[in-house]
């Protein structure tokens, strides 16, 4: 009797035991609104070590392009459709430069360090682009050593972009983080578009726009936000967001729906931790997420992302 009870308990505990989360180590592919992105496919691709080689290969598109090392002063490089741009190892990317994905579809950007955009520029800009997956990247500039408009955004997604997933990336030391929808006046182009998933991202010391989203639909989950003096997730002009299982530490207005636009946004906050900063949600969102996803808990997310987000993990 005693033994059979013990066996039963053992079997039950084996069945219900939570697996240790391993998702930080390897992501098999994008989840969320950008899930159908395949980029340049699974071929061996080519490796580039100079701005000119990167520019030529990226412009042509339709390939897997591996950047080896940090390329300085490339300016803003155009990326063609059905392309993957991936950094080699833990220290590859662009310094004082950026990438633009404009009027094309199906692009993957992974394991790239973006260290400071060009003057007035974005580190990564998506303009009229669809199906984009940004994964395990790092974005930063010089923080408050420069004035607010010296650089533009770290990751701007504008002009009716759609089906975008941003995952396992780090954003730090910058004024204007990520702008999804650039203007209150762009309703015609943006309404019904701008579906974005932001998950497992780590934000630190970014002044605002984590992201700011107008007109679109945003799903943000399992992310860590630290040290933001102005505003965090800013839903505006009827944009709808669902924010869940995230930890906001020392973030002023971690989620806000009535800031700096004529029309409010809508937000639903689920299982988030707010520490030193309160959400200001004036309208609830009724978003139903059309895909499967797995969250990691807010209580341990900052620790998980410190170890697993950014470059050097794929
Ligand atoms: C909170 O964040 C601000 C930047 O917004 C920073 O200056 C300050 O040191 C942070 N406070 C703590 C306790 O970390
Ligand atoms: C936003 O909403 C809050 C709470 O209802 C209100 O106190 C505040 O004045 C509003 N701010 C703006 C800029 O509309």
TrEMBL record:
InterPro entries: Pec_lyase, Pectin_lyas_fold, Pectin_lyase_fold/virulence, PEL. One of its GO terms (molecular function) is pectate lyase activity. SUPFAM superfamilies: Pectin lyase-like. It holds the Pfam family Pectate_lyase_4. GO terms for cellular component: extracellular region. Coiled coil: none annotated. GO terms for biological process: polysaccharide catabolic process. Residues 1-17 form the signal peptide. Residues 41-254 form the Pectate lyase domain. Keywords: Carbohydrate metabolism, Lyase, Polysaccharide degradation, Secreted, Signal. PANTHER family: PECTATE LYASE 18-RELATED, PECTATE LYASE 21-RELATED. Belongs to the polysaccharide lyase 1 family. This is Pectin lyase-like protein. It comes from Microthyrium microscopicum.
């Amino acid at each position: 009797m005693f033994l059979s009870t013990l066996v039963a308990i053992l079997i039950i505990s084996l069945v219900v035991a939570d697996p240790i989360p391993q998702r930080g180590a390897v992501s098999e592919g994008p989840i969320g609104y950008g899930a159908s992105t395949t980029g340049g496919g699974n071929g061996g691709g080519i490796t580039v070590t100079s701005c000119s080689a990167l520019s030529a290969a990226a412009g042509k598109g339709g390939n897997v392009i591996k950047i080896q090392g940090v390329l300085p002063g490339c300016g803003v490089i155009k990326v063609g459709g059905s392309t993957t741009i991936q950094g080699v190892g833990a220290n590859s990317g662009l310094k004082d430069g950026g990438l633009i994905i404009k009027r094309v579809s199906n692009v993957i950007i992974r394991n790239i360090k973006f260290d400071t955009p060009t003057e007035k520029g974005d580190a990564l800009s998506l303009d009229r682009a669809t199906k984009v997956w940004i994964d395990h990247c790092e974005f930063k500039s010089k923080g408050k050593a420069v004035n607010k408009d010296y650089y533009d955004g770290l990751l701007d997604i504008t002009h009716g972009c759609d089906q975008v997933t941003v995952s396992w990336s780090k954003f730090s030391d910058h004024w204007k983080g990520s702008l999804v929808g650039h203007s209150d006046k762009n309703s015609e182009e943006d309404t019904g578009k701008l579906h974005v998933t932001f998950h497992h991202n780590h934000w630190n010391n970014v002044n605002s726009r984590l992201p700011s989203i107008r007109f679109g639909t945003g799903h943000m989950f399992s992310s860590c936000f630290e040290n933001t003096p102005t505003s965090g997730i800013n839903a505006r002009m009827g944009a709808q967001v669902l924010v869940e299982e995230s930890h906001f530490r020392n973030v002023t207005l971690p989620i806000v729906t009535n800031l700096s636009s004529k029309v409010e946004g809508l937000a639903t906050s689920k299982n988030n931790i707010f520490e030193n900063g309160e959400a200001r949600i004036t309208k609830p969102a009724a978003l139903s997420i059309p895909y499967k996803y797995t969250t990691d808990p807010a209580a341990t997310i900052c620790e998980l992302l410190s170890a697993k987000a950014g470059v050097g993990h794929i």
